[in-house]
Fold:
Amino acid sequence: MVEQVRSYLEQHQDQAVSELIEFLKIPSVSADSTLKSETRRGAEFVLKQLEAAGIESRLVETAGHPIVYGSWKKAAGKPTVLVYGHYDVQPPDPLDQWTTPPFEPDIRDGHIYARGATDDKGQMYTHIKSVEAWMKTHGELPVNVVFVIEGEEEVGSDNLDRFLAENKDLVASDIAVISDTSQYGPGLPAITYGLRGILACEVIVRGPRQDLHSGVFGGAVTNPGNGLAKMIAALHDDQGRVQIPGFYDGVLELTQEEREQFAALPFDEATFMSNLGVNAVAGEAGFTTLERRWARPTCDVNGMISGYTGEGPKTIVPAQARVKITCRLVPDQDPKVLTKALEQFLRDQLPLGLTMEFIDFHGCRGLVFDFNSPYMTAARTAIEQAFGTAPVMIREGGSIPVVETFKSLVGVETLLLGWGQNTDNLHSPNERFSLESFRQGTLASALLWQELSEIQT
Structure:
């Protein structure tokens, strides 16, 4: 059975790439209201491809961009797999740093370059094509599948959460599959068994009602820029430890087995620094770079602004200063509790003469899954057969909030199977996806359905 699927995928690889090119031409930027119709066109493309693959599908309207829902549930007694992905993409700015336009896909050096190539159109599309291969060669699937492809992942997935909460019967499943992570490195596939969570906020401190002349008023009132800088500096000690009270309460420590697995991975710190253009690594003392990136909590300034930022000098005391902050969280930190703790900590640091506004954006918990579960074993087998190399087990420092939502609302764990690379310029100019990884990922997906079908539910 599997050989027929393999053959189909090989014979139709060029067609799949052509379809992906058409998908990538659609500027489905969910954050840009002027592109609302284009984002909808992205949903309609996914709908059309699912229907062509033999999956009964429909658009689910939301208060924002539509969700594409599809299902095939005729494999009696077999597991049901929930496949998640997103058709929306990040804004392409800055445009002048793209070698070729972001929505004019270009193939060079064995990669396809375009916004969304890896995150997440290219990776998500592998699962549609793998299902198509089974349906075209056998007329059925070895497992039951449910597709939930949304258009708001890049802006918070608020409407997805509502859809899942209101349609638990439609999405009931035994395991979820998401390809929105990465391989460990070139030629070394990976299964991600853990994700960090997140909390995100913005802080605005205000002083005088308007910008003041620094010669006339400097030294007589508190400068919001100076004050905010002092508040931010208090967030960490000299050892890189976050100083928010209770920040490390409940942190799930790495096991010795995990630390040994991380240490065994091929990781060269000098190359890591060179690739990033930095001359030193930094962070919490007592942990390796991989441990800090994947399994330790952090607190980072994402952006800050105060006063005049144009060309040349302007001698003022600014009326306000603002900063955007995120904390990456690990199990079992509570984002709601820590958001309140962060706000209180900053209020405690607030200099006299300033007021503070705190804006809570969003948060989600970190997760760790059992990497010895039968679902993980099935994924290992499928990936090794498709890539010719056994996958390594890794954690990911980023957050995929829907994974926590699947766990809390749907009661299902997730297989995080990334086909791309961390060097694929996700969220950056010249985003790309290896055509060979696209081929291997599609094959791994097709083989996964067969492996999962052998699990007793």
Summary: Residues 305 and 311 are 15 Å apart (CA to CA). The longest helix spans residues 121-138. The mean pLDDT is 97. The longest strand covers residues 197-206.
